[in-house]
Structures are given as C-alpha cells and as structure tokens.
Amino acid sequence: MERERGVASSTLRTAESASAHARTRPADLRAERRAGELLAEMELHGGDRRGESSSQRESLKNLGIDHNQSHRWQRMAGIPEPDFDAHVERTQATEKELTTAGVLVPSPGG
User: Fold this and answer.
1) CA nearest to 47, candidates 60, 35, 36, 34
2) Alpha carbon of 83 to those of 24, 56, 76, 108: distances in Å?
3) Residue 73: its pLDDT value, please?
4) 40-71 as b/e, with b when 16 or more CB fall inside 10 Å?
5) pLDDT at site 82
6) Are 98 and 29 in contact (CB under 8 A)?
7) Residue 1: what pLDDT?
8) Consecutive sets of 10 residues in the chain, 110 residues long: mean pLDDT of each?
9) Which terminus, N or C, of the chain has the lesser number of Cβ atoms within 10 Å?
10) What integer pLDDT is reported at residue 85 of this predicted model?
C-alpha cells in the first residue's frame, strides 16, 4: 500500500508539473491521464470524516493537487484510449498545441 502511494504521488507530481507549462509533448498529457486514473482509484479523504480509516486517506491538498486539476485529469482518464490517441495524433499532424482542454473539448470535425 505504501509503495502504491509512493508511485501514485510521483505520477501525480509529474502530471502537476506538466500542467504548469504549455504542453508540446504527448507524454505530458499521458501523465495527466494516468494521474486521473490513479486519483479515481484512490480513497481520497472527502465528505465522510467519521469513518475509521479517514485519517489514513489522502486528500487532494496533501497531494498538492487542486480540485480543478483532479476533475480534468479524471475526465481525461475516462476518455477511451483509442480516442485519446487519435486526438494526440491529429493534433500533432496539424502542428497545433496539445492541451488538456483540447482533449476534453475536441474541435468540430475532429
């Protein structure tokens, strides 16, 4: 469990760092997408503060992630991988900037 948290924290930090910069690399978007998958799997400390294990759960604040990042990354993780890959390929082919917003709200006809 501790090892999984360490791996998750490292992946989340990589994704957070990628978010702070303009994206030109598909690897940055993939890190955010993977972070969204990990966040969806984690038992984050949320509204139930009375549960026995609530003190052991992570919170977004402890992970250094804000609610908006978490929401975007988890939405991106929900996009089927073939659709995600097709968007990255289309965007690269047209030499446009790869962004999280571009993945979440694809352009018309693409």
Assistant:
1) 60
2) 19, 36, 11, 14
3) 94
4) eebeebeeeeeeeeeeeebebeebebeeebbe
5) 95
6) yes
7) 56
8) 66 63 76 93 66 61 88 94 94 90 75
9) N
10) 94
CA 3 to chain centre: 20
Q: At what angle do helices 67-77 and 26-41 cross, to 10 degrees?
A: 100
| Residue-level pLDDT at 77 | 95
Beta carbons within 8 Å of 12's beta carbon, 6+ residues apart: 35, 38, 39, 63, 64, 65
Q: Give the whole-angstrom CA distance, residue 56 versus residue 36.
A: 20
- Please report where in the chains the tokens 């990589």 appear, as a residue: 14
Q: Which residue type occupies 101?
A: A
The tokens 């469990």 sit on which residue? 1
Residue keyed to tokens 């139930």: 48
